[in-house]
Amino acid sequence: MRLQRDERPDERSSEPRGDRRDGPVGPCGPEVPSAPLDRLLAASVARRFYLGNQSKVEIAKEFDISRFKVARLLDAAVAHDIVRIDITVPAEIDAPLGQALAGRFGLRHAVVVNLMDGEGAEGGTARPAGPAGRHRVSRWLGTAAAQLLSATAEEGDVIGLDGSPEVDALSEAVNRLPPCDVVQLTGVHGPDLARDPAVAAVRRTAAAGGGGAFPLYVPFVLPDAATATVLRSQPAVAGTAHRFGRITRAVVGIGAWGAGLSTMYDALGDAERETYRASGACADVAGHVLDASGEVIRTELNARMICVSAAELRAVPELIGVSGGARGAEAIRAVLKSGLLTSVVTDTATARRLLWHDGADDTARTVSSPRTTE
Fold first, then answer.
1. pLDDT (tens digit, 9 = 90+) per residue, 62-104?
2. Rounded to whole angstroms, what are the CA distances from 269 to 102, 210, 247, 299?
3. On the CB side of 49, how many CA atoms lie within 13 Å of its CA?
4. Domain 92-365 adopts which CATH fold?
5. What is the DSSP pairing of strand 92-93 with strand 318-322?
6. Would 2-85 and 92-365 be classified into the same CATH topology?
7. How far apart are CA 254 and CA 256, in angstroms?
8. With contact defined as beta carbons under 8 Å apart, do 175 and 150 qualify?
9. Separation of alpha carbons 340 and 370, rounded Å
10. CA torsion sign, 41 to 42 to 45 to 50?
11. CB count, 10 Å around CB of 235?
């Protein structure tokens, strides 16, 4: 049994010293359930307390024991691995840095996750780079984005999700949402359209709220514009694409233009990458490539993709961008300049670069997002 409740099952300080009628207690520790019946009782008590949200008094009345024994059984359940306590948020949130970031860029929400080892950013060691390090960063940021989505989503929302690793992590971390439809914003990257992580993320997130799932069963990039046109007319594809304009809340990963830093970059061939690079590619979001000034770069490749348009993204009332790690600040800054984002989830190092441009003298050059926060 795993628990995610903040309340500590410890009321022994209030127990009368002479009360030992409910069973033996070790001189320095919690009661040890020595018989199978005791383990079953400890598990039953723990289930009611942690999963059923019953009070110790209610549990004591049900089992006809004292509330002090309930407390001892809860202690024993943890001490003897009947209950395992997991802290599901893998890193700490830096609230002051998030507030500073939101204020600087006019964002509705800015969640900053401390991804440093140790007690804090100042004394810790940076997480390792490379594919494994980037994967861990995506998982942590996706988990934080899931918390933000759960806290802000409302019944009747239409939620849009792209196919980024951060959104995949979000879909695994989100536990509960109000009833919402969930729409896939971009095509899939793998050969198995039905089992692609982007499709699975939409289904998982929709299941968390009991809403409808609207996946997009098309490749991320199609061979030519004619194929894209034919697919757009297919009922299933058209039904999903028709909902792009109804999206009220969306979460998208922000990629930096480089190998391993962008799902879009990795999906393209060398010639296509170079075409964008020559045009000043700096970041990509939901199938759109932006230069450092925040302008969307348009090429013939746009006609070969079925995804939410930049205009539809801009019309989404709440658009949460998620990015961090290597070159994260450069990419986020470009998307902020585009005016697409209302909220950001990132890490402490990236947030500091966004605020200070890697130097105190550069603070004044930071540009606020033109997106309204009303």
1. 999 998 999 989 988 888 888 887 655 546 889 999 999 999 9
2. 37, 39, 31, 14
3. 31
4. Rossmann fold (3.40.50)
5. unpaired
6. no
7. 7
8. yes
9. 8
10. negative
11. 7
Q: Which DSSP category does 49 fall into?
A: I
Three-state secondary structure along 210-235?
CCCEECCCCECCCCCHHHHHHHHCCH
User: Which among 111, 146, 140, 35 has a CA at the least distance from the CA of 341?
Assistant: 111
* Residue 185 one-letter amino acid: L
How many CB atoms lie under 10 A from the CB of residue 348? Answer: 22
Contacts of 261 (CB under 8 A, 6+ apart): 134, 255, 325, 326, 327, 331
pLDDT tens for each residue of 255-292: 999 998 998 999 898 999 999 999 999 999 999 999 99
Number of DSSP helices (H) and strands (E) in the chain, helices first: 14, 13
- Let me know: does 45 contact 71? Beta carbons within 8 Å: no
Residues facing residue 113 across a β-bridge: 93, 347
CA 296 vs CA 83, 195, 284, 290, 306: distances in Å: 51, 30, 9, 4, 16
Q: In terms of DSSP bridges, do strands 318-322 and 213-214 run parallel, antiparallel, or are they unpaired?
A: unpaired
Name the residue type at position 159.
I
The pair of three-digit structure tokens given for residue 157, joined into one six-digit string: 């929302």
102: amino acid identity, one letter:
A
Cα distance between residue 4 and residue 87, in whole Å: 7
Those residues with Cβ within 8 angstroms of residue 135's Cβ, 6 or more apart along the chain or in another chain: 165
- Retrieve residue 102's tokens: 């939101």
Q: What is the mean pLDDT of residues 212-241?
A: 94
Q: How far is it, in rounded angstroms, from Cα 220 to Cα 112?
A: 30
Strands (E), 162-221: 181-184, 213-214
Task: Pull the structure tokens for residue 311.
Answer: 């205009």
Q: Does an H or E element contain 334, and which? A: helix 328-338
Any idea which fold 2-85 has?
Arc Repressor Mutant, subunit A (1.10.10)
Write the single-letter amino acid at 200.
A
Per-domain residue ranges for the chain?
Answer: 2-85, 92-365
Q: For residue 191, count other CB atoms closer than 10 A to its CB.
A: 8
What does the pLDDT look like over 1-15, one tens digit per residue?
544 444 433 443 344
**Other beta carbons less than 10 A from residue 276's beta carbon:** 21
CA-to-CA distance for 329 and 319, rounded, in angstroms? Answer: 18
